[in-house]
């Protein structure tokens, strides 16, 4: 009987942790770091970007992959997106709204 209770408790804990992980997002540390980024006019102008309207199902990563052949790290993408769109949450893009998405070009020397 104790084994049965133990396995039920393990199943409940597994379900609860899965639920909380899915609700908090897959990159909570990056989202926390995004809030501390300071935006200045020179940084915004230095990042090449393209304004795109978000469609249903689009994410920051999916749009960035469409725009760029060479993808930077996710941390760099989040930082650049936050600099270009200081009031936007990259984890919750609004459908129909325009955002500036950073463009990345491969260096000639690589």
From TrEMBL:
Species this chain originates from: Sporolactobacillus spathodeae
Protein name: LysM domain-containing protein
Phylogenetic classification of the source organism: Bacteria, Bacillati, Bacillota, Bacilli, Bacillales
UniProt cross-references to PROSITE patterns, sorted A to Z: PROKAR_LIPOPROTEIN
């Amino acid at each position: 009987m104790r084994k049965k209770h133990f396995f039920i408790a393990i199943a409940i804990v597994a379900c609860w942790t899965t639920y909380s992980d899915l609700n908090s997002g897959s990159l909570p540390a990056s989202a926390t770091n995004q809030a501390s980024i300071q935006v200045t006019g020179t940084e915004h102008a230095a990042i090449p970007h393209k304004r795109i309207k978000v469609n249903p199902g689009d994410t920051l990563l999916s749009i960035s992959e469409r725009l760029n052949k060479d993808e930077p790290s996710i941390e760099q993408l989040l930082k650049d997106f936050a600099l270009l769109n200081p009031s936007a949450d990259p984890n919750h893009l609004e459908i129909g709204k325009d955002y500036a998405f950073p463009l990345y070009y491969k260096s000639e020397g690589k």
